[in-house]
Specification:
Elements lengths: L3 H14 L5 E6 L12 H8 L4 E7 L2 E6 L9 H6 L14 E6 L4 E6 L9 E7 L5 E6 L5 E9 L4 H7 L2 E3 L16 H10 L4 H6 L9 H10 L13 H22 L16 H4 L19 E5 L2 E5 L11
Antiparallel strand pairs: 1-6, 2-3, 3-4, 4-8, 5-7, 6-7, 8-9, 10-11
The structure holds zinc ion (ZN).
C-alpha cells in the first residue's frame, strides 16, 4: 500500500502534468473503479466533462484533484449540472468539488500519450481537450477507484485547521493534517495523542490525531526515538510525543528525497515502492538483522494483523504489556 511519500510523488507528478488542463471526456472501463461514486459511472463522467483541474492536493495518504467551474460554452456543461441530483452537491457549490483518488493496494495514476496501448488493468481514462497526454487510472486488484465529492471544512484537528482554513473532500474531512503539511501543529498533534487511551503505535496509525504515518514509517520513527509501540499514550511525555512525530516527519522527508524523482516526463506512476524501502530502513522488515545502533537482532511482533519491528534492547516493551 503506498504511504505518504509515494502518494506525494504522484501528487507532484499530477501537479506538473494535469493541473490547468480541461477534461474533454471520461471513459469508465470498469464499474468497480467508480463504486465510491454512488451516482454511478455516467454521472462521474458527466461531472468531470468540461471541467478544468485546478489543483492536485494531498493530506496524509489521500490525494485529490480540485475541479474548476465548467466552461459555459462546453457542450456537456448543461448536462453536468442537470445531472447533479442534489443542488448542494452541484459542481458550482460554494466550496467546489474534487476527484478523490483511492489508490488502494495497487492503484496507479498514469499520464500517458494518447495512442499508447492500454494497460491490461486500465479502469478509467480521462482525455483532455488539448489532446495532450491522458490520465489513466490503472488498478490490478480494483480495491482503489475515483469518486467526485464536494469540498467540506475539515472536521478533525480543529485547533490547527482554523489557521489553514483547509477544504477537503467530504469523505476524508475527519483526517488530521500530516507532519509534512505547512499548517501542521506539532503541539496540537501531541496533545491529541496524549488524550487517547491506547498504545502509541495505534495512535500514530489512527489518522485522526496525525495523518500519513503508516506501518513502515511508524516503526522507523519509534526505532529512532527508542520507544516501543505498545507504550501507553496517557503516560507519554510531551517531549516523547514531539520526538516521535518529528522523527516520523524526518523519515518521510528522507523517503521523499530518495523516491521523489522516480517518474519520467510522460509516465507518472505510483506502485508503492520508493528507493527508500530497501536501502535505508533500520527496523521495518529487518527481523533478525542487527539493530544499526546496538547490534541486537531486530524482533518481529504481530500487530493488528500485520507485523511490528523493533529493537528489543533499544525499545524495551513497557512493563505489564
Ligand atoms: Zn538497538
Amino acid at each position: 500500500m503506498p504511504e505518504l511519500p509515494e502518494v506525494e510523488v504522484v501528487r507532484r507528478g499530477l501537479a506538473d502534468h494535469v493541473v490547468g488542463r480541461t477534461i474533454a471526456r471520461v471513459e469508465v472501463a470498469h464499474p468497480r473503479a467508480v463504486r465510491r461514486h454512488l451516482e454511478g459511472g455516467d454521472d462521474f463522467a458527466a461531472r468531470l466533462t468540461a471541467r478544468t483541474i485546478t489543483a492536485a492536493r494531498r493530506r496524509g495518504k489521500y490525494l485529490w484533484l480540485e475541479l474548476g467551474d465548467a466552461h459555459p460554452d462546453a457542450p456537456n456543461a448543461a448536462f453536468a449540472s442537470l445531472s447533479a441530483p442534489n443542488a448542494a452537491f452541484a459542481a458550482s457549490g460554494p466550496g467546489g468539488d474534487a476527484v478523490l483518488a483511492h489508490l488502494g493496494m495497487s492503484g496507479q495514476m498514469l499520464v500517458a500519450v494518447p495512442g499508447r496501448p492500454d494497460e491490461k488493468h486500465l479502469r478509467i481514462r480521462i482525455v483532455f481537450a488539448d489532446e495532450g497526454p491522458e490520465l489513466r487510472f490503472v488498478d490490478q486488484r480494483t480495491f482503489g477507484g475515483l469518486s467526485v465529492h464536494p469540498l467540506a471544512a475539515a472536521s478533525a484537528g480543529r485547533l490547527s485547521d482554523t489557521a489553514g482554513g483547509g477544504l477537503l473532500p467530504a469523505p476524508i474531512a475527519h483526517i488530521a493534517r500530516d507532519p509534512m503539511d505547512p499548517a501542521f501543529s506539532l503541539d496540537d498533534a501531541v496533545a491529541a495523542i496524549r488524550r487517547r487511551r491506547t498504545e502509541l503505535k495505534r495512535a500514530l496509525l489512527d489518522q485522526t490525531a496525525v495523518s500519513g504515518i503508516g506501518n513502515i514509517y511508524a516503526d522507523e520513527a519509534l526505532w529512532r526515538v527508542k520507544l516501543h509501540g505498545a507504550r501507553p499514550t496517557e503516560k507519554l511525555t510531551r517531549a516523547q510525543g514531539r520526538a516521535v512525530l518529528t522523527a516520523a516527519a524526518e523519515v518521510m522527508d528522507e523517503a521523499l528525497a530518495q523516491g521523489g524523482t522516480s517518474f519520467d516526463a510522460l509516465y507518472v506512476n505510483v506502485n508503492g515502492a520508493s528507493g527508500y524501502f530497501d536501502r535505508s530502513l533500520a527496523a521495518y522488515g529487518q527481523a533478525d538483522r542487527p539493530c544499526p545502533r546496538c547490534g541486537t537482532p531486530i524482533r518481529r511482533e504481530s500487530f493488528m494483523n500485520r507485523s511490528s519491528f523493533s529493537c528489543p534492547r533499544c525499545q524495551p516493551r513497557p512493563r505489564g504489556r
